[in-house]
Structures are given as C-alpha cells and as structure tokens.
Amino acid sequence: MIAAPFLARSRLLCDATPEARAQLALAARRRDAVRGTLIYGSGVPADGVYLVASGCVALAVHESAGRESIVHLCGPRDSFGEEHLVGGAGALSARAVSTALLLHLPREALLEAMARHPSVAQCALRSVSRRVLQTVQLLGAAATRSALQRLAGYLLRELGTGERAGAKLTLAMPKGALASLLGVTRETLSRLLGQLARRGLIELRGRTIRVLQPEALAELCHGGGGCESCCSCPRGAGWEVLAT
C-alpha cells in the first residue's frame, strides 16, 4: 500500500479529504521507470492517472515524420493521464526522461473515488483546468515570444517562489527534452544558455543554473510588455493557479 501522506503532497490530491486519499492509497501501485521507458502511448494503454514522486516524465505528441514533440514536462508532485479518465486512447504519449518513481492510480479506482468523494472530482477538474492553462500559455509563448524569451520564462517558472538573485536550479531532464519543449534544437538551446551567461544573467555549472539577475531575466521574458500580460512569466496572470 502507498502511504496516504504522499498523496496529500501531490498537486492532484492535496485538497482531497483524508478519507478519499486513504481509499485511493489502497489502490495505488508503485512503478519504477528508467530513462526512456514508455509509460503509455503508441499502443500502450494508460489505464489511469500517474503521480510523479521523483524524476521527470515528458508528455509528447507524435508528428507525421515519426518524431516526438514534447508539450509538457512533469516533475515531482505533478500528475498526468487525467485525459484518459473519459476513455479513449488519447493524443499524448508519456515517457520517462530520467529515472522516475511513479504512483499509478487505476482508472476504475479513481472514478469510484470521484463518485464517493466530491473532493476528488473537484481535484481532478482543477488538475485538468491547470493543464489547459499550461497548454494555452505554451501556445501563446510559441506564437509571441522568441526562443530566448521562452527560455527566460522557463527558468523563471522553475525558480517559482525562489526567484531571487543567486537562486539555483538543477535541470531534472536531458537538454534534448528541454529543447523539444521550447521548440528548438539541442544546439540552439546550448547557444541560448551561452547568450544568457555572457549577458551576466545566469551562471552555468553542468546541469546547475544560477540566476544572477532575475529582474533582468523577467524583463527579457516579457519583452517590456509588463509581467501581467506575459504568457510565460511566473508573475503573470494565472501563475498562482499553475504553482499550487
């Protein structure tokens, strides 16, 4: 059995009642995934929702040429697979881009909990709404922001409430996965990181990035249009919803 306290820390179920989490803990199953493991997609069914305890999982769409384009990266406390609660194969695939520890909540168990506990249904609706907002922000950034601005927004989002001079973050996924999320090649991503370092906005040490000038990074992100109107900046509209 998976301990209910972990479910309480997940973004999906943090607002569910203790009774609801206890019921779901009985059905939850641990799944270990090494880098490259296909969780679902390409003929592999999802059959439920997954919670990320550690590591990173990429959600991707398949292009006509057979390539994958990453549309979202799920880290600790995140969930994915909610779209499969309504049935159907779904348009996304999920693949571990680092060693990951996952908790699988079977579809039937989750639907039963939603029927018995309104708090679980509310949590699921909030999670789906958050994912829609993330997708809208991603599309908005792709349409209106340069690659350098999208990278600046990503770094600010990763810092979150730790947005201060000297704050550090460690990339939890390969650079290739981050490049795909930003819509650039791995070579372009390395060049963009170098540009930010030469400007004195960040400092690079392997997979660790130290943000030296968060205010300048935010100014680059929203391009002078104001944080409130920025679709990438964590200070912008909707960030509080995404960060909870």
Task: Give a structural overview.
With 244 residues, the chain is of the alpha+beta class. The chain is 41% helix and 22% strand. It is built from 9 helices and 11 strands. It has helices at residues 4-9, 18-27, 107-116, 118-144, 147-159, 175-182, 186-198, 214-222, 239-243, and strands at residues 29-33, 38-40, 48-54, 57-62, 68-74, 79-80, 93-96, 100-106, 167-170, 202-205, 208-211. The model is unreliable at 237-242 (pLDDT under 50).
Strand content: 15-25%
CATH architecture of the largest domain: Sandwich
Radius of gyration: 18 Å
Separation of termini? 26 Å
What would you call the shape? globular
Q: CATH class of the largest domain, anyone? A: Mainly Beta
* CATH superfamily label of the largest domain: Jelly Rolls
**Widest sheet, order of strands:** 1-8-3-6
Keywords:
2 domains; 244 residues; 9 helices; alpha+beta; Arc Repressor Mutant, subunit A; four-stranded antiparallel β-sheet
Care to give the gist of this entry?
With about 240 residues, the chain is of the alpha+beta class. It has 9 helices and 11 strands.
